[in-house]
Fold this sequence. Notes:
Layout (H helix, E strand, L loop, with lengths): L16 H17 L1 H9 L9 H24 L11 E5 L2 E5 L7 H12 L3 E5 L5 H13 L7 E3 L6 H8 L5 E5 L2 H10 L5 E4 L4 E5 L5 H13 L9 E7 H4 L2 H12 L22 H8 L6 E4 L12 E4 L6 H4 L6 E7 L2 H9 L3 E2 L1 E5 L3 H10 L4 E4 L16 E2 L2 E2 L15 E5 L4 H16 L11 E9 L2 E6 L4 H14 L2 E6 L5 H6 L5 E7 L4 H9 L4 E2 L7 H4 L4 E9 L16
Helix pairs in contact: 1-3, 2-3, 3-4, 8-10, 15-16
Amino acid sequence: TFVRRGRRRVEGAEHSVDERRRLLHAVADLMSAERPMTLALMADPALGAGKTHRQGDPEVSEAIDFCRYYGSVGLDSLVPPPDVADLVEVEAAGTVAVVAPWNFPYAIPTGGVAAAIAAGNRVVLKPAPEAIHIGAWIVDQFHRAGVPDSLLRLAVCDDGDVGRHLVTHPGIDAVVLTGSSETAQRFLEWRPDLRLFAETSGKNALVITAAADLDLAIADLVASAFGHAGQKCSAASLAIVEASVYDDPTFGRRLADAVRSVRVGPADDPATIMGPLIAPPNDRLRRALTRLDPGERWLVQPRQLDERTWTPGVRVGVQPGSWFHRTECFGPMLGVLRADDLDHAIALQNSTDYGLTGGLHSLDDAEIDHWLARVQVGNAYVNRGITGAIVRRQPFGGWKRSAIGGGAKAGGPGHVVQFSRWRPIGHDLDRARSDFVRAWTEEIAADHDPSGLAAESNVLRHLPLERVLVRHDGSDPDSLELLRLAAEVSGVELVESDARSTTDASFVATISSRVGRVRLLGELDDDARRALHRRNIPIDIGPPVAVGTVELRRWVREQSISLTRHRHGRLPDDSQSPAP
């Protein structure tokens, strides 16, 4: 009864911006006060997701941060600049379904719910079947903090027919998914016109060069690979090691010693470093834990302790292009590849279908700059672990098949905006140009480090897409003018396709791999949409608007760069004040 066919009135919009701000901060306060209960629930082997306290504690902090950040910076982003405020109207998207994962059962669903509520929407939270009690706890906390049940409901169902009914229901206006890329593609096959914001799979690598601090590199590699038993989309599944280090037998011995030191046990034991799996291994993970491919050998062979508990494993000699190099396994298994040099390592790192997180360990500034200019990941980490993104410091989201549907990173300044609808109500190209140039110069093209830490640089940068394609029918020349202006300011190539002279099928057949996004001004049939989805080309149905901070974010890819600037707590001489 919560989602009704044809119903588009958004009850969340009845709450003012100030009321939504107050509600989200009240949720954060309650979550902070009830941290011990949440940690106990997540660790409980019967009710929770088997999270150790050392993994669960930062997750609770992340959920609190989401509520505070979306209730401040997120809400502020919904207010258009005064110079163009009369040219747009902002409203909520409608009803948002948050389809949550089991591996981060508290922070990720809280973030999706908080962002959607901040934008004025109603929300249906569907927790993973493995984490129903945690999902119910989240909804209960929101309700007790004052969020009415008319804004937030819990949907407890399986991932089969009932889950499909929820995702495809016409009363759902947008879906937030954290899960596999296969699940995201399935959603889009079911409903090609779905507004989907999906953070999906990863096959993440940490590159170690001869210029690395090997003690630090090994510690960060082990923590990134085996935290939460490797059940993180951001986990380090691969280590790509420069030849001189890989060939040195002492490196293998040191890595093996570090892996064997990981204490495995029940999640509710405070001494446990790595807890159990969420369930017995599926076929893909079982193969990774038990079988070697040609050229590989065990550096540390994993052992099964009980139905759900395994010790961590390391395979060396992983071959470029092999099964383990390219396959996400989602468990406590690390593969090590040998690279001739840094360029070879980057090529190996970029050669998978995914681009979620990636790391580099090197103390050579030239190597760091070279890697940052070429690595194809949404979150890039230097001389630190590659998991544990923090709200605002490292907005989270990937490239390639690690992100489906387009959209701004979670925990970043543009995230809440995408859950709202910006509708043009006036047209003034001169004022739009002025705001576009200001926004591009001051906010989009400029790197920003809002946290301003001296010990760690955390830069969010925006890289222009290579090409954007607009599909139109000639009925909205004002919108076409705005798109041409946005392309001019951002430096992105704009290709126009007129539906009056080209069929949908012909339009799709001519799209090259260089197209980063399709802007839709008109209709597009379901077969054409499915063809674009299969190639992971986002379809943006929102009309162009004269607000630069909103419009121009749709012409770029976001990348978070986190770089450790200290050596064992000591800052370099030029780091006495915060700088990117």
